[in-house]
């Protein structure tokens, strides 16, 4: 078990171990809860990359040619359980996901466009300055 520091004044102490975090990740993954579908109307109009074939034509010119300016959907899901580890200066996570894009035709039929498997290592470093809680997040593919 993790040793907790001695409390010298009244305070709330919250401790989450790697075991708890990884158990939660396992439970969510096993239950199928690590899925998210994003449609074009869910993104703000000012978002730099819209889910339309016109915007995605930069990555795949054939999309715009075959399906001119059609809305798209993005299905995000975890392929494996995320792995989390706690270190004194940072939290680390390994994510194993996939992103499947679909073109949404006028009759609501979804046509598969592409599939990306994305593995990433994420590091979060919390900081406390005065009464402010902040931090940095870095991502490595």
From TrEMBL:
Monomer. Homodimer; disulfide-linked. The N- and C-terminal barrels adopt an identical fold despite having only 13% of conserved residues. The N-terminal region may be exposed to the interior of the granule, whereas the C-terminal portion may be embedded in the membrane. During phagocytosis and degranulation, proteases may be released and activated and cleave BPI at the junction of the N- and C-terminal portions of the molecule, providing controlled release of the N-terminal antibacterial fragment when bacteria are ingested. One of its GO terms (biological process) is innate immune response. SMART domains: BPI2. GO terms for cellular component: extracellular space. Gene3D superfamilies: Bactericidal permeability-increasing protein, domain 2. Its main location: secreted. Pfam families: LBP_BPI_CETP_C (PF02886). The chain crosses the membrane at residues 12-34. The keyword Endoplasmic reticulum does not apply. GO terms for molecular function: lipopolysaccharide binding. The cytotoxic action of BPI is limited to many species of Gram-negative bacteria; this specificity may be explained by a strong affinity of the very basic N-terminal half for the negatively charged lipopolysaccharides that are unique to the Gram-negative bacterial outer envelope. The keyword Phosphoprotein does not apply. Residues 6-140 form the Lipid-binding serum glycoprotein C-terminal domain. It is found in: Secreted. This is Bactericidal permeability-increasing protein. SUPFAM superfamilies: Bactericidal permeability-increasing protein, BPI. Keywords: Antibiotic, Antimicrobial, Disulfide bond, Glycoprotein, Immunity, Innate immunity, Membrane, Secreted, Signal, Transmembrane, Transmembrane helix.
């Amino acid at each position: 078990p993790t040793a907790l520091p001695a409390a010298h004044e009244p305070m709330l102490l919250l401790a989450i171990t790697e075991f708890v975090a990884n158990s939660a990740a396992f439970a969510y993954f096993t239950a199928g809860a690590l899925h998210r579908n994003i449609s074009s109307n869910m993104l703000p109009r000012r978002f730099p990359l819209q889910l339309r074939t016109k915007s995605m034509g930069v990555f795949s010119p054939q999309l715009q040619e075959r399906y001119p300016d059609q809305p798209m959907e993005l299905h995000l899901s975890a392929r494996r359980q995320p792995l989390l580890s706690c270190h004194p200066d940072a939290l680390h996570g390994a994510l194993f996901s996939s992103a499947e894009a679909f073109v949404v035709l006028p009759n609501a039929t979804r046509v598969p466009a592409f599939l990306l498997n994305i593995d990433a290592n994420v590091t979060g470093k919390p900081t406390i300055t005065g009464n402010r809680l902040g931090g940095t997040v870095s991502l490595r593919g």
